[in-house]
Amino acid sequence: MISNPLLAPVSVLVDYAAIKPEHIEPAITTLINESRQAVEASAQPALAASWEAIVEPLEDATEKLWRAWSVAGHLNAVVNTPELRAAYNQCLQQVTEFSTWVGLHTGLYEQYKRLKHVPEFARLPAVRQRIIDLALRDFRLGGVELQGEQRKRYADISEKQAQASQKFSENVLDAIDQWSLFVNDATRLAGLPDDVVQAAQAAAQTDGKQGWKLVLKMPCYIPVMQYAQDRELRYEMYRAYTTIASEQGAPELDNSALIEQLLALRAEEATLLGYDSYADLRLETRMADNAEQVLDFLRELAAKAKPYAIQDLAQLRQFAADQLNLTDLQPWDIAFASERLRETRYAYSEEEVKQYFTEPQVLAGLFQVIQTLFSVSLRASNASTWHDDAQAYEVVSAQGEVLGTLYIDLYARQGKQSGAWVDSERNRRRHDGFVQTPVVYLTCNFSRAQNGKPALLTHDDVITLFHESGHALHALLSQVDDPGAAAFASVEWDAIELPSQFMENFCWEYKVVHALSAHVDTGEALPRMLYDKLLAARNFQSGMQMLRQIEFSLFDMGIHHQSHGLSINAVLALLEQVRQEVAVLFPPAWNRFPHNFSHLFAGGYGAGYYSYKWAEVLSADAYAAFEENCVSTDGQSTDTLNPVTGKRFLDEILAVGGSRPAAESFKAFRGREPSIDALLRHSGMAAEVQ
């Protein structure tokens, strides 16, 4: 077992290249057994009621397990194979059972209650007091006070939810990976960017076929919808993507029953724990007080955005009819017509801008922003990775101290889940005089390099990369020494997007964009004239975009603010009801958007999707502090890359992680309660629609 890389000490970086599927089950089984023993030992009433006697030994054992499980989960998401999936699923039940067992462990719960009520509690550091308080809350929300059959049923619900969520995710991945469209007529690809055509041709050749292979991965799907002049091709791709993992495809990949099962299980869990709905249960751990407050917030935002969205759509319909001869604008026309309108109105295209954002230059520019704001640098490391696409970086302080390790994996590929995300492999921890540094994954799905040239990113890709870097920095720059108060462990879910959405704002600053850009052929930075056009288009269709996010959020709250589960037909009916309330765009009746909504059913955002807009209020207001404290660069222009304000953001937001409530951290940085004004201004919605 010593040779099993998943059993290496937590203080040592994982040898990813050495991990095989057959390592997972033995490692997880061993570590669960060790963790069970540690739980039982910490639950002994004879122990002193102290942090050192109860919490530290428990952390020593369980952090090994959670690190190994995080590694297994990450590999399952980014290099999925039948063997790895089988190994992961074999352990999923064990891990779920263990986690539920800990949450239901009355003896351990009593120990934490002892810690809370001894006089020494008041002398503990505030962060440890908070960890104990949060642990007691989580025990209660984990069913520890349930008895008899209710207790057994809760454990059963937990296991079934984990399995259903994993299967939902697998179905989406498999449905995307298994679908393809081979095109043999080059005229059908008219309008597509050269790099997309080349990638499609290479994909066909890999399959031993002539022509071009189109797939539903974002680097292919989005350009087809934006640029393909063949309307029927856009329709085929749109229909395939919007019916992923539904009854309209392979029966074994249909997520309908899983959606029903998950909603029923979540509602039953809430009832067992004494809540009216799953939304009420989840909001116990959020900044928002209750579902009504969330719904009021979303509807207030919708009321402000809808006039802009109506105007956006009216202008698009008029343009499509007048300039594109599209008098019956359909959903598969929206992205295509919108890109043509953008080109006409602002005299540039996304494809033109993309030529300036080469991946090496964008990464270098991002790293420079991080160094300027937070006085840390990122340097390439030769640490072992799971795929040639991945690269490790050390995060280094101005004094040369290594603060953490960041793994970046940017390209879409077969066997890799769609989307972009950040996850933590291990947290910062100070123990026995040694500081264990955090390790973080940053994953995206961008187009890879073609024909020996660097990979090209759209400006939206750049924004995505900055967004995910904000999440990564929240973990990497933590100064919290106890993992129980790490950012991803205890920051309220509706505040976790603050650092990520905050970082997006720098993608619109000229100095930053200039540093991020180097034309793929000439090396020239993005010209100021083209930047000005890009900036002018920042709020292009912002009303429609905001309503789309509000639609998703209201749908999420709607299906989870119920006392019972819903049939798939009721889910679709509720979605239509939400659209009638707030939307301006309406998809066809055969659209099956929920079946691919992994955020809700496999990604932890159930009853929490509203957090994107909630946190955007915080992030926009936080960025306004940088706008208010611009530094002069040449006596004329100003620059939001203010190291002084950056240091305050680091100290009051990033470094404190979850050591205090998010509302307190925001007030410490901003000096007041958050205001929605900056979000409306950044979205171009500060004035009334004329």
TrEMBL record:
Tell me a GO cellular component. cytosol
Show the GO MF annotations.
Answer: metal ion binding; metalloendopeptidase activity
Cofactor: how and how many bound = Binds 1 zinc ion.
Catalytic reactions on record: Hydrolysis of oligopeptides, with broad specificity. Gly or Ala commonly occur as P1 or P1' residues, but more distant residues are also important, as is shown by the fact that Z-Gly-Pro-Gly-|-Gly-Pro-Ala is cleaved, but not Z-(Gly)(5)
Show where the Peptidase M3A/M3B catalytic domain sits. 224-684
List, for all copies, the residue spans of the domain called Oligopeptidase A N-terminal: 31-151
List the InterPro entries hit by this protein, alphabetically.
Answer: M3A_DCP, MetalloPept_cat_dom_sf, Neurolysin/TOP_dom2, OpdA_N, Pept_M3A_M3B, Pept_M3A_M3B_dom
Q: Which residues cross the membrane?
A: none
The protein's enzyme class: hydrolase
Alphabetized, the UniProt keywords read: Hydrolase, Metal-binding, Metalloprotease, Protease, Zinc
Q: What is its EC number?
A: 3.4.24.70
Swiss-Prot/TrEMBL cofactor(s) = Zn(2+)
Q: Single Gene Ontology BP term?
A: proteolysis
Question: What family is this protein classified in?
Answer: Belongs to the peptidase M3 family.
Q: Specify the protein name.
A: oligopeptidase A
